[in-house]
Design goal:
The protein has 452 residues and is an all-alpha fold. It is built from 18 helices and no strands. It starts with 10 loop residues before the first helix and ends with a helix. Belongs to the multi antimicrobial extrusion (MATE) (TC 2.A.66.1) family.
Length: 452
């Protein structure tokens, strides 16, 4: 879900400062042609596969939690589903969006060989997001009240409120976890796992030689340039949130349909499935973001363009494979989440729609990664606004509540939004002047690296 963050600069690249020099030895000119295309594909896959593995493992924490809660009954499943959707809308997606500004900043700084800026940018982002998290925790604490205010079912809202309160880390979390394995235990398990992940990564960055050039210790520079960071981070958050909120809104809207427990349960399973598959695309998007930002920072406009074209081909191939697999497992997938026959049958019915949305979502995710590598967050925010809130959500509401198609109507509306987003991103990439993007990248590294 929205809480997954991708590593921005692969470790093996940091180990090799002459990475771009090695590229020049392996390619002629701008790297175009069949050999250049194949080499770029290999390079992206070598970056993407570790990212996919990391994202999948992280997201499985949430998937497994929902699966266990689902077998406790329909009400616990719908409550946990509503809670995670609310948490994503009000917390995870905001933090993910703000943090994604680092994809542009760190990637282009690395391409320009300003390695020390990676550590400064990261510290600056952590300080900003920690302050923001205080306010988000207050919102989570009042989840139940907020959901009831917006017309959600009382029982579901109460369970969702409890789940999200237990998602807020506590000093006594370890002790309580030993005694619980209901929805509260699942929430605590997620939180503890994330903190362990943070601790391990912090220790790795501190002691690993791979990060010696990018992290040179805590710096007062992190307190400078925060406004410059926010000028990119806020559009990044808006870009991500507009997209993520529309998907989570499907679950929230399903609580207003007749038989909300069934609709919320099935739409949550659909969304969890969609996000799990999306982790593959996030890995591919992270790879192309790194490649595009690195090449722009290094002044290689044509290689940046080639990286986008190669990524589009890889995303299309991945989408066909994932979509076909989704259809093939449609009759057994619901059994992983629930013992209710009604839920299992409904999941099988909606899975073909998921296959189509997985294909479109994967394609646009990769193009969005390229956009983040270029620093197009402002433009993408407007694209996502139009795609999802002018087309997607209104279509979903119309199909679900006016034409009474129910939860499937909500998902068809999301597919409409995805289609518009994908077409718009294709047009933007095809009309890009990559030489201009190189100049913008150079200006951005100088501006964000200097103190205010």
């Amino acid at each position: 879900m929205g809480e997954v963050l991708t590593p921005l600069i692969p470790n093996h690249e940091i180990i090799s400062p002459d990475f771009h020099g090695e590229q020049n030895d392996n390619e002629d000119g701008d790297g175009s042609g069949t050999n250049g295309f194949i080499e770029e594909g290999k390079r992206q896959l070598s970056l993407a596969l570790p990212l996919i593995a990391v994202n999948m493992l992280q997201y499985c924490l949430q998937v497994i939690s929902v699966m266990f809660v689902g077998h406790l009954g329909e009400l616990p499943l719908s409550s946990a589903s509503m809670a995670t959707s609310f948490a994503s809308v009000t917390g995870f997606s905001v933090l993910l969006g703000m943090g994604s500004a680092l994809e542009t900043l760190c990637g282009q700084a690395y391409g320009a060989k300003q390695y020390h800026l990676l550590g400064v940018y990261t510290q600056r982002a952590i300080l900003t997001l920690l302050v923001l998290s205080i306010g988000l925790a207050v919102i989570w604490y009042h989840t139940s009240f907020i959901l009831v205010t917006f017309g959600q079912d009382q029982e579901i809202s109460a369970g969702a409120g409890e789940f999200n309160r237990w998602m807020i880390p506590g000093l006594f979390a370890y002790g309580i976890l030993q005694c619980l394995f209901g929805s509260r235990g699942a929430a605590l398990a997620n939180g503890i796992s994330y903190w362990i992940n943070v601790l391990c990564l912090a220790l790795y960055i501190k002691f690993s030689t791979a990060c010696a050039k990018s992290f040179t210790g805590f710096s007062r520079e992190a307190f400078n340039g925060i406004l410059s960071f926010l000028r990119l981070a806020i559009p990044s958050a808006i870009m991500i949130c507009f997209e993520y909120w529309s998907f989570e809104m499907v679950v929230l809207l399903s609580g207003l349909l007749p038989n909300p427990k069934l609709e919320t349960s099935v739409l949550s399973i659909s969304l969890n499935t969609c996000w799990m598959v999306y982790m593959i695309s996030v890995g591919l998007g992270g790879a192309v973001s790194t490649r595009v930002s690195n090449e722009l920072g290094a002044g290689n406009s044509q290689r940046a363009r080639l990286a986008v074209y190669v990524a589009a081909v890889i995303a299309t191939s991945e989408g066909v494979i994932v979509g076909t697999t989704t259809i093939l497992v449609r009759h057994i997938w619901g059994k992983l989440y629930s013992n209710e026959n009604e839920v299992i049958r409904y999941v099988a019915k909606i899975m073909p729609l998921l296959a189509l949305s997985d294909f479109l979502d994967g394609f646009q995710c990769v193009l969005s990664g390229a956009a983040r590598g270029c620093g197009w967050q402002n433009l993408c925010a407007f694209i996502n606004l139009g795609a999802y809130y002018v087309v997607g959500i209104p279509s979903a509401v119309l199909l679900a509540f006016v034409f009474h198609i129910g939860g499937m109507g909500l998902w068809i509306g999301i597919i409409c939004g995805l289609s518009v987003q994908a077409v718009a991103l294709v047009i933007v990439n095809l009309s890009t002047n990559w030489d201009d993007e190189v100049m913008k990248a150079s200006d951005r590294v100088q501006a964000t690296g200097a103190p205010e």
